[in-house]
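[09:14] KT: can someone run the structure on this one? pasting the chain below
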Amino acid sequence: MATASAPPSPGSHGWRWALLGGLIGAAIALTVYAPARWLAALLASATGDRLQLVNARGTVWNGTAGVVFSSGASGAEAISLPSTLDWTLRPRWGALDATLRLPCCAPQPLRLLARPGAGGAQLDWRDGTSRWPAALLSGFGAPWNTLKPEGTLDLATQGLVMEFKGDQLGVAGRATLDATDISSSLSTLRPMGSYRITVDGGPTPTLLLTTREGSLQLNGSGRWNGRAMRFDGEASAAPGREDALSNLLNIIGRRQGARSLITLG
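[09:31] RB: done, structure tokens below
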């Protein structure tokens, strides 16, 4: 004769709910309190160690770290910014809202919206200005580590959007870089001049280099094909400055009489 089984006691599944609750709580805590060093490791991996956050403290969402620009994992060149970076990340619908505070280089916090997507990400930069030491370029390796530039770099952005998809980079909007009182270890002439680089985004982003003033005259233009920049320009010395700039002109391009032809890509 069959006997009816006893109904499960109210607490027979309690441990399962407790375990599930504990796992959910741990997942939330791990997300909220994820250490800042995780973000530093992710950024270093994504840039091939060219941009590094050192001595990162805090969490992924609110942290602080030193900033180092480097020529990569196998490169010997690196330069640190003179102040620390403080960041705040806030989730938005399908995006992350980032606020970057860098007292040495930006009078106002830099703002951007990062949107992850299939095979890449999109960075929408809020319009803003910042000032950077030209010496940081030496951290990117050749040819900057040979030129060892000094001076200031003033960057202004307008509607700048960068879209990374696989190994391609798309650019929309405009960025203007004013390089002021630039000098180099390859010339005793200090400063050599001041220059402007304008990047206009679109289906085929363009770059325009012009000389604002100075003894070293630089001019040229380039086009970005999504993977590399093709740039053609020339350098020359102002009248009476040929001897002081001769060595530099021999190095930065192919000499053609008084001019030096510069070709990249």
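[09:33] KT: thanks! Residues 15-30 have pLDDT under 50 and may be disordered.
[09:34] RB: yep, looked fine to me
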